[in-house]
Write a structure and sequence with these properties.
The chain is built from 14 helices and 19 strands. By secondary structure, it is of the alpha/beta class. 33% of the residues are buried. It has an eight-stranded mixed sheet, with helices on both faces. Strands 2-1-3-4 form a four-stranded mixed sheet, sandwiched between helices. It is extended, with a radius of gyration of 33 Å.
Length: 509
């Protein structure tokens, strides 16, 4: 006698798996892998059951007695179950496509590495309104971050509807995001990936990098809120998660040991020999130094720079091509950068109001790798006589460009294992980082990237901002004159000419 096999009730199994997935999610929502496995198997089982019994269901439904009966309810229930499971899986494992021109919403590999290595939970509070320009950009960008890491929580606050919350955070403008984790807090004002990832890196660390400014020689003060001060610069650094302070080497026997970056910002009076020896000792022990020096000052830093093969060139830099349109000839708008970690894909021009150039002597600096970070154009020179109006290049007295006005130095020989590597950056201008100019896009970017490189924030330096699809155009004087002639003279003249021709032709009709 032949035994008949009972077909496997695959539909019942699928239903049971779907119910088990719901129960598992309610009991252990953190074990998404188990829920996904159960719901995936349930979806496959129900689709298999539907495909296997489709003909039987079709014949059964064609009978007059069941045409309007339970079969219709069964089919609807089956389809609803499939749609429900697909929706459940799609919500928790959604797939997004980025069709923007420059892949603006596709995170960089460096960002994914940072998100994978987050040590703790991070909350992000975005103060913006739906009508603000940054709302959609923040939302799209942070959605990508949340999809990549469950340790990130994001909330949007309308400062007009919830003014007390904004007041508690000290927020006075919209499109501001505040990152919080443990005792750390970092705020940003741009939804750019480099800004968000940088905030994640800083807020997830227990210790802050220590930035120390030298004082005692007429340097730009961190407490001065006038155009020439650096109160805004200090605020920028603090919002980036740095611990900012000052040091007086006339009173201290050495640079404090917890200093990550020492900044000498525009000294007006002479730095003593003892102070320069302490700065040199700090660099020799693996310290990181940023020196900002202006023309026509008595800082007496020449002998210290000579240790690294550098010399401050004479005169003031003048550029007929790369300068601020309608500005002074000495207001340089530098666009030429050498490929370095600091300047890699730096697209915005940097405004240096009054600068001097740097000279590197290979024999004296033979132990150092020298990289000129920024240069003037070939139509530039170092003007040595600033008594009258600068209008032409004097071949006998002036120095022909292009000339370097910012440089980075690192020792050629790698340090011993476990010891930090010294680094020095020298810029022939300090005003670019002052209150009056730090909000200029290129200045802020260049200064922050320089400090980031010196403080060894490699996760931030390696992440370069994407080139935007819409780029702001800052014309140089030649381009400005061309635009003036075309827009103010040529186009109106052509309009008048075309009008006269049309009028003359109609008059002859």
């Amino acid at each position: 006698m032949e035994m008949t096999r009972t077909p496997l009730p695959i539909g019942a199994i699928g239903t049971g798996l779907a119910i088990a997935g719901v129960i598992a999610y309610s009991l252990a929502p953190d074990k998404l892998w188990l829920v996904t496995l159960l719901e995936g198997l349930a979806l496959a089982s129900l689709i298999w059951a539907l495909a296997t019994h489709f003909d039987r269901l079709k014949r059964f439904s064609s009978q007059r007695s069941t045409r309007l009966g339970a079969n219709s309810a069964l089919m609807v229930a089956l389809f609803l179950a499939i749609v429900g499971i697909v929706n459940f899986l799609a919500v928790r494992h959604s797939i997004r496509w980025d069709f923007s021109e420059n892949q603006n919403y596709t995170l960089a590999p460096e960002t994914y590495r940072v998100l994978r290595n987050l040590p703790r939970e991070i909350s992000v509070t975005v103060f913006t309104r739906e009508k603000d320009p940054g709302y959609q950009a923040y939302k799209e960008r942070l959605d990508s971050y949340r999809q990549a890491s469950p340790k990130l929580t994001v909330q949007f606050i309308d400062p007009e509807r919830q003014p007390k919350v904004a007041q508690n955070y000290g927020v006075t403008r919209t499109d501001v995001a505040i990152f919080e984790s443990g005792p750390q807090s970092v705020r940003i004002t741009s939804p750019a990936e480099v800004e968000i990832t940088g905030a994640l890196v800083r807020v997830s660390k227990d210790a802050k990098k220590r930035i120390v400014f030298l004082e005692g020689h007429g340097e730009r003060s961190l407490e001065d809120k006038d155009r020439g001060g650096m109160a805004l610069t200090k605020e920028v650094l603090e919002k980036q998660g740095y611990d900012v302070g000052t040091v007086t080497l006339l009173q201290e026997p050495s640079v404090p040991g917890n200093t990550d970056v020492l900044i000498v910002a525009g000294p007006r009076r002479a730095v003593t020999k003892e102070e320069k020896e302490r700065i040199q000792a700090y660099v020799a022990q693996g310290g990181h130094l940023l020196v900002l020096l202006d023309p026509d000052t008595q800082s007496s830093m020449d002998d210290l720079l000579k240790v690294w093969g550098l010399e401050l060139g004479p005169g003031v830099l003048v550029d007929l091509q790369d300068r601020l349109a309608q500005g002074d000839l000495t207001a340089l708008l530098v666009r030429t950068f050498t490929d370095h970690e600091i300047t890699h894909e730096l697209t915005a021009a940097v405004l240096f109001p009054l600068a001097r150039h740097l000279i590197f002597h290979e024999e004296q600096g033979k132990d150092w790798d020298y990289v000129p970070l920024a240069r003037t154009s070939p139509r530039s020179w170092a003007e040595t006589d600033m008594k009258g109006r600068v209008v032409s290049y004097d071949e006998k007295a002036d120095v022909q460009g292009p000339l370097a006005l910012a440089a980075a130095l690192t020792p050629k020989q790698a340090p011993e294992e476990g010891k930090p590597r010294p680094a020095v950056v020298v810029v022939g201008n300090s005003a670019f980082a002052s209150n009056g100019f730090i909000n200029f896009v290129g200045n802020s970017d260049f200064f922050q990237r320089t400090v980031g490189w010196l403080s060894e924030e490699r996760d931030l330096i390696s992440l370069t901002p994407k080139d935007p699809a819409v780029r702001p155009f800052t014309p140089n004087p030649l381009q400005e004159r061309i635009l003036l002639y075309v827009q103010v003279i040529f186009l109106p003249a052509m309009t008048v000419l075309c009008g006269l021709l049309v009028w003359r032709k109609r008059r002859r009709l």
